[in-house]
Amino acid sequence: MTQCASPGCENTATLACPTCLKIGIPPTRFCSQECFKNNWTNHKQLHKAIKLARQEVKQDPSAVPSEFYGFQFTGPLRPAMVTPKREVPPEIPRPDYANHPTGIPETEMQDRRTNNSIRVYTPEEIQGIREACRIGREVLDIAAAAVRVGVTCDEIDRVVHEATIERGAYPSPLNYHQFPKSVCTSVNEVICHGIPDMRELKDGDILNLDISVYYNGYHGDLNETFCVGNVDEEGRKLVETAYMCLANAISMVKPGTLYRDFGMTIAKTAKANNCSVVRTYCGHGIGTLFHTVPDVPHYAKNKAKGVLQPGHVFTIEPMINLGGYRDVLWPDGWTDVTEDGSRSAQFEHTMVVTETGCELLTARIGEPTDRLVWNPDTFSK
């Protein structure tokens, strides 16, 4: 239990300062509104100091985190300051890695060691996954509404974090193998797993938002790429190509399809548009675990195992580059970028195999749940 921050008060703290939560720092806690109000004059000085420090960092273009000193960047993007990890209320159920000191998903790792069969979910279990995916869809739509020139990815992380916990869900990325934020924000040459920071989005950026939530024992996972302001024709074509790679793969989802066959369709779509397919990352099974079998590679001539059956739940999430397919990992251990500095785009859905095809559990509200339809206005901000 945490003691009230009010000097001389020994009561148990039950209230978290809302301003601390809003600006993304570990909240100071008080036992009552009275203690909070009595200490507000002094406490708010902390908020001012934090905001001033952040402003100074934003104004200093050389303020790159120390772990990047000497690193040879492949493209023009540079990291900025990352704010402290946001807290999740204790009453919200969470996966095993959420409170692990090093973020190890122990049940997931045990599954990897002992299980090679693809789970067939029951209708009741699929409904649970459907609910998690519904929340993920809502959160992504809320986050997308915040995308604009001048907003920081840290602010988008705050929006995602608050929208997720407001719905009684846990943001799945948070503390997964110690990932420090509640959403992955991948800008321009970042392929995936970008860490939200204080860099402001610029006119002409492309931004991928990767949302995952954990709700009532199930995960849901989806992502979309957005054009920020005036994106050039080549960038817009890349985003459309990434979307069509996913759309064409989804059109194959039905009982009897081989998991390895998605890669050929995705690769053909990418090649026809002078793009390449990232090979380092793949789609995955999902449900009670964040990541499980099957692996779903997106490139041609892969060796994925398994045949689609009704009740299988998995993601397809091809990462498509304007240049070559090779990637480089930043020193932060998460941000993966293109080796040649070219831009990358991605779309992802969670889906369940039905008797006749598939249901997109993360489909946009009002759009078909068995296929994707391209609308460029949807992804322009």
What does it look like?
This protein is of the alpha+beta class. Helix content is 28%, strand content 18%. The protein is built from eight helices and 17 strands. The chain has helices at residues 18-23, 33-38, 40-59, 106-114, 123-145, 153-166, 233-250, 262-272, and strands at residues 15-16, 29-30, 170-171, 184-187, 190-192, 206-215, 218-227, 276-277, 283-285, 292-296, 313-316, 319-321, 327-329, 336-338, 344-346, 349-353, 358-360. Strands 3, 4, 6 and 7 form a four-stranded antiparallel β-sheet that branches. Strand 6 (206-215) and strand 7 (218-227) form a beta hairpin. The longest helix has 23 residues, at 123-145. It is globular and about 70 Å long. The chain starts with 14 loop residues before the first strand and ends in a 21-residue tail after the last strand. 44% of the residues are buried.
Write out key terms for the chains shown.
alpha+beta; 18% strand; single chain; 8 helices; 381 residues; four-stranded antiparallel β-sheet
